[in-house]
Amino acid sequence: MKMSHEEYIEKNRKRAVEIASGMIDGSVHYLEGVIELSSLRFKGCLPEDDSDFIAFSVVASEVDHLPIGASRQYWSKEALEKHELEIQQSIKWAKEVSLSECKSLVARFGA
């Protein structure tokens, strides 16, 4: 069965709610969630300047050099250890600049 455009948008918005909720409760790695949310902005048919998604795009661009997510498997143990402090600091900073946007996404598209 083919999905309509509206169903596609709804599916991606529900995924954004799942990710944001997981970021809030800690079940989703915060930086991995940021990166996925940043990519979902256009799949949810939201404007480029959507105030919630701007924060995720900013954070994603600031952490794109770090070993996060699936790419970690390609990094050496030494490199992972070297970047761990920066990852932890980035998570703290990312929460400061985007946790309220996670809550806003849940409020906007959840239910």
Automatic annotation (TrEMBL):
<feature type="domain" description="DUF2489">
    <location>
        <begin position="19"/>
        <end position="103"/>
    </location>
</feature>
<protein>
    <recommendedName>
        <fullName>DUF2489 domain-containing protein</fullName>
    </recommendedName>
</protein>
<dbReference type="Pfam" id="PF10675">
    <property type="entry name" value="DUF2489"/>
</dbReference>
<dbReference type="InterPro" id="IPR019617">
    <property type="entry name" value="DUF2489"/>
</dbReference>
